[in-house]
Amino acid sequence: MPILQVMIEYFNLFKDWVSTLGEKHGVDPLVLGSLYLFSKLCFFSLLGWVLKNLRAKKPFVTQLLFACVAFSMPYLYLVIAGRNISVWVYICIGLLFSYGAYTIWKKVTTKPVSDDPTIPII
Length: 122
Prior knowledge:
Elements: H1 3-25, H2 29-55, H3 61-81, H4 87-109
Helix pairs in contact: 2-3, 3-4
């Protein structure tokens, strides 16, 4: 069997497995994946905007709240639309939210240190 046929067979098995999981838990895998990709793009864009405003000493709370909402979109979809989901999934989502909030707080509250004032801090 050529390698391409084997890869196609594995891809079809994976696709069927994901579809079965989606039906079992009441979640559309395409919607969940799209939300995940879109949320991460929005999250990092908004976090960059927060850091830009923070360095310019402008208000940043609104952008930070939007970044938090963008981070949580796919997980909220899973919690709201999903059914028959194991407890460990909810624990992982809670840990993700906690860790995300902690890392955002650390990134926003730490002040960069530079000895040379001519070097821009990124």
